[in-house]
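Pasting as-is:
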Amino acid sequence: MLIAFQACKKDVVELVPFSELGAQTNEFIVPNTAGEVKVKVLSNSEFTVDISPEDTWLKTDGRSFRGDTTITFRFEANDSFNRMAVVPLHSEQYGRYDTVYIKQRGVMEAKMQFPVLNTSVLGDGGTVNVDLNANVPFEDIDIQVIYPDASVEPWVNEDFNYHAQDSLLTFSVQPNPDPVNLRSVQVKLTYVDGWGAQISSTLYLVQANANNEFGALVDFPQVRAWAGERITSDIYIEGHIISDAKNPNASEYLQTTPTAINYTENDKVTYIQSFDGRYGFKIVTSTTNDNIFKRYSKVKILLKGTTVNKESNPDFYTITGVTSMMVLSQEEGIASDLAVKSKYISELTDDDIFTFVTLKDVEFPIRKGSFTPINEGYSILFSAHRIAKYPLLMRDIQGNTIFLMTNTNVPYRRDGAMLPYGSGTVAGVIVHEKFTRFEYEDAPTEDKYGNIGRYQIRHLAKEDIKINSDFNQGFSGLLTEFQYPVIENGVAKATYGSGTIKSSVANLNLTRSFDYSYLGPVGATNLGNTNQYGNGVLVGVTKQNQEANTNSDGKGQVVNAAIAANTMWWNEAKQRGEAFILEFSTLGVNTSQLSLQFTMSNLTGATGKGAPRYWRVEWSEHGNMDQAWNTIGTFTVTDMPLWANTTIHQLAAYKNYNFKLPLAMLGKSTVYIRLIVDKNLASDGNSYASEPMTAASNTGIGYLAVRYNK
């Protein structure tokens, strides 16, 4: 039996001989010029190479080959689009196949685009002529007519034709029999090039009713009159779109819980403003796919069925429920088509909300960090959803301030570049947004918590920020500045000008701590201190973050970059708070504007408890904590978050501040400013500020400066 089995096994091996056929590399990309490419094939039999008769641009020396060999494919120059030859290899003896793909680049780039994405036609029907910029063969274009639902009776005829000499696509439509209702359709063109890449463009077509009516054109104030209601009349508005569909900084990402963010709402948002730029609406489309708007385009939008919502104090208006089918027309435009609105911060009014405004003579007065100097471990970059945006302080030549809003999906927010520190202009959409991670419990009702000012501005592209990079080309000068800790004998020394910062607590030494001012790039794949500018702090030509473990985890932390005091911040014996005390001189300065800028954070420990929430800014000529000081203003300091218990009012960053200083401080050889705890209230780890401080806690100053207008 064993002998018989071995004999059978031998027979099987002899009946199934080894076979091989295959190219070592199956895909080749070749240039548009003529040339050749060599393909190595492994085979132990005869095989054929079959080039399609349609691929006349590709040739080989013969059709039949045997064994391991190298085949030379010669190709002609390609003065057209990308093309590809699919070349089968076949061994008839063993029934084996393989395929070689030779992709040749073309001189021409396939183009097919409706410059006007939306158009309308009368209810009478007839021929539709629309501009189409295309250079591909019309017979290779797939045309789909997409109706709102399957029950709609087709009314677009299939007589499509393209007139290349006029760049016009023509087709006809049937009359609309309905005396009241409009109807809509999408005409989608798709072209697949020789490499299988697809380009498409969609025309959104609206047809008037049988009476050739689209509705009445109304102005923006007339639409505002519908506030709180669903529009039931056949009306439409005209205006300019000022934000591209799905612009990552168009609108805020909604923080729905302390650890969850709705990112999709931003992709539904665009803005329309009146042709004169006076009024604007925020538009929220029904779905992200309905947001088909292009920046600077001139549009007509049907409003029947949408809802107008109004917010008060400040007053602004949002239109919700807009669909792509409501766009009567959309004509491409350019930036210069928009009405020019150039203002100082003080000149903004509620009517400017949701319009495009250029702010004049502005600067970033915090000379440190990026657009979003946050702990990236709490951001989308590390798949965490605990901070969605950062408000960056801007100041203008008149001394007024506004926050520049930047979302965590903006690609250039932390790209490694230093912020520009001169002055110039910043353009964007004026908005009113709350931010509970800066302020909280600051209003009578919770829905109003988070007020950070009446107006903010959202840039829509990096090019909207036109500020000179050179500090010397700005309107500000510095009296004193603390960009990076220089601490001697427990006292911080200025990195620009003269001045010191010390603690009000006797014999307490200030120390160095961390902040999140690393410029980037950041993320799990960007580890280590590789950016030549680090946290954007240069003294002369010296980079200040020489620490080897800066940005070690890609989250943007800069070690030893802040000035900190770890103390019991409430003095029970004297029933007052303790303070950071700044000493400097104002001699020799004559100015109309004097101001203080700084960043602070409560660097809470493992419990998140006990850090002082409420503070005051005061000044004096004596510097004695127990004498009278002049109050300048009050502010709140945020707590660093705890990962295990992140609350809605914790901030994974330092908060930035600006205070106008009284001109009475000028002309002093020595003058003092103190940042002093105002109330004996702190978080209990969950609350905003509910209990007295009972132990020492650490608070840091990431940056501080006193500046004046030159």
